User: Which sequence fits this backbone?
């Protein structure tokens, strides 16, 4: 029997030898982001969506950074859990749009937190860097930096509009938002319990109808169909995107 | 019963160690390499000093394939050696010629038996910075994955990796080179994965830009662009504050890499339905129909040297390319939202071409480190 006991540590080693290493006293958190239009899953497969006056919209690209993600506890103390993550909600059918995109964050100090906060886009601190300042592992490298604007692209929404109501959307729509004037952060209240061995999930959704028709007032997509330097419009869209991003 | 458990337990212990080692290589048929037959050869890999160009991002190097002088040398040899092809007639370099910035100047490249590939050979420059997948359709996530495919492609090199490995093992130099690059202790440890790692290391060193006028003028500030080049620059980056048209180039070709490596339908084909594209491109990889007809945006470094242009080499000159983009291209349901007609006069088009030529870096194509090591 003693020989069998001798083997037990090796058996345990076998089971755990190649597993993922986690710090003791820490846990993980999954953040899931998905897109909707008027509350319905948003497909980027050619599906058309009602805008105003019979105009229909098609979305083809929806990307945005979430940066400087932090959790706040009851005492108001904050814990940083991630610097930058790119959310890409393109390539979705109505079925797969429900799945959205998840990011998994590990080694978070265990505890009870009361809210989560992040920048929808880049923080000013991060936007004042350039790709050459960043470590190779930074997810900001997955995005685009426009040196002439001295800014990363915080978010991209692209698609088409059918203005002449002939059923064929001819007008391209491209919104590239960046620049320090477009920096926006948002706090999402709600309890989050981090504990060892557990991965709670927090779901977020952005509604594109609310981005382009906030409070029922249509954004002038006919005039502003390509936006990458009109700071007023970029600010307005940054406001709308931030307001439209909600925690489920 | 105890005896049985005891014996069985030792089997498990052996499995513990086996489980945590790298998987053993596929053993090709033939050959009886001696275990430890390379151990008398020094293994002292020297970290490769990868140049860091001003404003360029840091290259992401896989933890399991650090770049070393020995790995780069081996990769360079493999890149230029026709040993990778079925009849020893072609190498990677046959379709990636230094003088054409490691493209081949053909609409469709020819393989070992004279057949044509379905797409134009991509130029190999700054590929170590690519984070969105290699090939026109991005089907290989990493350079290591990419390097494996042409060898067994029926049109390209049409060889089998087990045969190639056998040729390496019989070769007078390669076992030593593999030992020096990766520390293997016997010929039997030579694998296609190590060959691909070596080629990937070599390709990561192929960084372009430093010898160009753009780099000297716009990054280092040591030189001035001509008026024509500057106008082209302002239109390319929409940086003229409104006195010149926005040519919309920078959205997909942002500096300093002059590509975002993403996939787009840039209006090459007119189809009524996305299922009708003659080449599915990215959609053939993702199986997402809306990706059909999308191809990678290539880097524009050395674009003057990499004609013909597009995945099928349909444009022979940069002037044709500018005409295409100015026209907005052909309509199809998923044509990129930025593809729309742009009002550019003849002088402005010429200025754009002049600017593109500032991205020519002949020091890259003439760099001795990228030439055939067998010559």
Assistant:
């Amino acid at each position: 029997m003693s020989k069998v006991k001798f083997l037990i540590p090796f058996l345990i080693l076998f089971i755990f030898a190649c597993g993922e290493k986690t710090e003791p006293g820490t846990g993980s958190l999954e953040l899931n982001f998905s897109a909707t239009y008027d509350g319905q899953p948003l497909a980027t497969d050619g599906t058309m969506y009602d805008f105003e006056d019979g105009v229909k919209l098609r979305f083809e690209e929806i990307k945005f950074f979430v940066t400087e993600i932090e959790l706040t506890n009851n005492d108001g103390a904050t814990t940083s859990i991630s610097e930058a993550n790119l959310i890409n909600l393109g390539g979705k059918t109505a079925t797969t749009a429900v799945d959205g995109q998840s990011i998994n964050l590990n080694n978070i100090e265990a505890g009870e937190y009361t809210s989560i906060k992040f920048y929808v886009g880049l923080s000013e601190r991060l936007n004042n860097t350039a790709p050459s300042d960043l470590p190779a592992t930074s997810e900001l490298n997955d995005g685009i930096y426009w040196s002439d604007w001295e800014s990363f692209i915080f978010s991209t929404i692209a698609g088409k509009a059918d203005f002449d109501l002939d059923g064929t959307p001819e007008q391209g729509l491209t919104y590239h938002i960046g620049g320090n004037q477009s920096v926006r952060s948002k706090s999402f209240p709600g309890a989050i319990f981090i504990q060892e061995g557990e991965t709670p999930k927090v779901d977020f959704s952005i509604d594109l109808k609310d981005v382009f028709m906030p409070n029922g007032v249509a954004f002038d997509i006919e005039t502003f169909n390509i936006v990458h330097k009109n700071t007023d419009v970029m600010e307005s869209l940054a406001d709308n995107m931030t307001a439209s991003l909600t925690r489920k | 019963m105890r005896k049985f458990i005891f014996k069985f337990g030792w089997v498990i212990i052996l499995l513990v160690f086996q489980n945590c080692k790298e998987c053993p290589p596929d053993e090709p048929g033939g050959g009886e390499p001696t275990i430890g037959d390379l151990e008398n050869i020094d293994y002292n890999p020297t970290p490769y000093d990868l140049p860091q160009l001003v404003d360029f991002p840091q290259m992401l190097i896989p933890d399991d394939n650090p770049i070393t002088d020995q790995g780069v040398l081996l990769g360079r040899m493999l890149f230029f050696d026709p040993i990778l092809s079925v009849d020893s007639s072609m190498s990677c370099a046959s379709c990636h010629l230094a003088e054409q910035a490691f493209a081949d100047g053909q609409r469709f490249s020819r393989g070992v038996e004279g057949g044509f590939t379905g797409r134009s050979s991509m130029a190999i420059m700054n590929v170590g910075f690519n984070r969105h997948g290699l090939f026109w359709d991005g089907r290989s996530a990493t350079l290591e994955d990419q390097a494996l495919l042409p060898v067994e492609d029926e049109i390209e090199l049409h060889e089998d990796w087990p045969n190639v490995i056998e040729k390496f093992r019989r070769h007078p130099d390669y076992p030593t080179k593999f030992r020096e690059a990766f520390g293997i202790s016997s010929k039997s440890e030579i694998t296609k994965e190590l060959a691909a790692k070596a080629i990937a290391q070599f390709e990561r060193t192929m960084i372009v830009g430093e010898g160009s006028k753009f780099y000297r003028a716009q990054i280092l500030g040591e030189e001035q662009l001509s008026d024509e080049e500057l106008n082209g620059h302002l239109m390319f980056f929409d940086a003229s504050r409104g006195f010149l048209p926005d040519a919309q180039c920078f959205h997909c070709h942002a500096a300093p890499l002059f590509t975002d490596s993403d996939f787009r339908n840039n209006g090459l084909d007119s189809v009524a339905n996305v299922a009708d594209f003659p080449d599915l491109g990215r959609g053939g990889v993702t199986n997402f129909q809306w990706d059909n007809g999308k191809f990678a945006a290539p880097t524009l470094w050395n674009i003057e040297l990499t004609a013909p242009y597009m995945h099928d080499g349909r444009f022979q000159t940069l002037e044709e390319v500018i005409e295409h983009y100015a026209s907005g291209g052909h309509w199809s349901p998923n044509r990129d939202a930025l593809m729309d007609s742009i009002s550019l006069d003849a002088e402005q088009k010429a200025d754009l071409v002049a600017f593109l030529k500032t991205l020519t870096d002949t020091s890259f194509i003439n760099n001795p480190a990228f030439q055939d090591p067998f010559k």
